[in-house]
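Deliverable D5.2: sample structural annotation.
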Amino acid sequence: MKFPLLASLLVFVVWIAYEIHKAHKKDDKFMADFWEREREADSTRRKSLADLNYITIPLDELTLPDDSDDELKEDFSVLENISKGKIVKLSEYTNTELKLKYGAPNLPLLTEWDSNYATMVQTLQKIAVSLFKSGNLALAEKYLDFAIESGTDVSQSYYLLADIYEKKGEPDRITELELLAGNLGSIMKEAMLENLSEAGPHSDFLRNPY
């Protein structure tokens, strides 16, 4: 009785040792491949940036009410400052992929432009919330429309626009948001789709007003 038990234990130990060894080999190969790709990326020469999807903020359409407070005006000035530089959404790429695609010397520029994009969509959301709270739904919708058109993955922008559609008596338009959200590469996509498919309110500050 003891011998079969001991044999089984030995087989199990050998199997565990084999699996650990196999995992280590996979890890070693992964790291070797990673550093080889990184070495290749670092040696990639500067390439043309002409095919990038540059974003222009329509400041002539995204206006502010005459009675806007200082905080809202300050947020709008952020958009004005960003609009003076280049804005590109590159969050779907890793730094290694950017270097391989556009050349290592271009990485600082690309990082700056992607940072401008991140600041832009966060600021658009912040302004839209302020306008929504003040009852200016039409203008808030314009800011959110542009944010979503530019490919934002700020989930609250989709949720707030869904709330605006419901307040306007146009809940059927939320289906359009679900389609747009479904095309995103964001890790938040599934949560966004689940939220949009449920009854509102959708945005956090409406669900938790206090």
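Annotation notes: The chain has one domain: 2-207. The first helix runs from residue 2 to 42.
The annotation will be released with the project's public dataset once the embargo ends.
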